[in-house]
Amino acid sequence: MAHRGTGFFDTRGHYHKTPEDATIADLAALLGKIGEGESLAPGIAMTLLDRRSEIERLFAEHDTMMVDYQPMGAGSKITRLTPRAS
């Protein structure tokens, strides 16, 4: 007998039973093939999703640091600190 169900689809249109599986598939596709043989991307994608709050915090901190950051350009004077001789 036919029955109704819920499914989730990744960006490529592949069906997944859970939203986590669909998101992991999308993350793995963004990462591409990693490693020799079978790709490590799905496992890395799962870790990224599992540690999402920590990763988002790190990116927020990175964005805060980048607000006032100006890379040293050519012609900038670089002062190197050297330890004093005893």
What is the fold's blueprint, element by element?
Elements: E1 8-9, E2 15-16, H1 19-31, H2 41-50, H3 52-67
Antiparallel strand pairs: 1-2
Helix pairs in contact: 1-2
Would you give an account of this structure?
With 86 residues, the chain is mostly helical. The protein has a domain at 8-65. 45% of the residues lie in helices and 5% in strands. The protein has 3 helices and 2 strands, in the order ββααα. It has helices at residues 19-31, 41-50, 52-67, and strands at residues 8-9, 15-16. Strands 1-2 form a two-stranded antiparallel sheet. A hairpin with a 5-residue loop joins strand 1 and strand 2. The chain is elongated.
Quick recap of the structure?
This protein is mainly α.
Distance between the termini: 88 Å
Largest sheet: 2 strands, antiparallel
Mean pLDDT: 90
Content of β-strand:
under 5%
General form: elongated
Contiguous helical run count: 3
Structural class: mainly alpha
Q: Any idea what the radius of gyration is?
A: 23 Å
Helical residues, percent: 40-55%
The spatial strand order of the largest sheet comes to 1-2
Order of helices and strands: EEHHH
List how many beta strands DSSP finds: 2
